[in-house]
Design a protein that fits this description.
161 residues, mainly alpha, 2 domains, 7 helices
Length: 161
């Protein structure tokens, strides 16, 4: 018989995890926009994800995990091309001409699109109070956070923010 031990996360670790996500993910669009002024967008994205990949490989090596499972490499390659090159590549390319706050708002609409384009699960998704409230609150929060910057960026006198 194996006994599973459930360990609760400490409040401090949860706060640190959220702070890390907010700082790293929240500053992504700002720093992408700063970087594309000096580095071509796809080269900058390539360097960024090459470094991330090397860090992940180093971590897996440290944890003594197998690095080259062909099925996992194939799935990761397909996901990488779709998510990183097409999805994030388009974001990096767009930030040459759009305010980072506007790009962040456009990207934050992705969960809405996921729900709208998932036609087989419309009944489940569109009748779930949690999903609808989560989509509204999440997108409204991003709009509130960036509304002043986006309106300034879209006005004739506004600049790239």
């Amino acid at each position: 018989m194996s006994a599973t031990i459930k360990k609760e996360a400490s409040t401090l670790m949860v706060i640190i995890a959220f702070a890390t996500v907010y700082l790293v993910w929240g500053s992504t669009y700002f720093f992408i926009q700063k970087a594309v002024h000096d580095i071509p967008p796809f080269i900058m994205g390539g360097i960024r994800f090459l470094m991330a990949g090397l860090l992940l490989m180093a971590w897996r090596s440290y944890k003594k995990e197998k690095l080259w499972n062909i099925q996992q490499v194939k799935a990761a390659a397909i996901s990488g091309v779709l998510l990183l090159f097409i999805g994030n590549g388009a974001v990096i390319w767009a930030e040459q001409n759009l305010a980072s706050s506007l790009v962040a708002m456009l990207v934050s609409a992705a969960p809405i699109w996921f729900v709208l384009l998932d036609k087989p699960r419309w009944h489940e998704n569109l009748h779930s109070r949690e999903i609808i409230v989560g989509l509204i609150v999440g997108f409204a929060g991003v709009i509130l956070l960036f509304s002043e910057r986006v309106s300034a960026a879209l006005s004739a006198s506004g600049g790239m923010i």
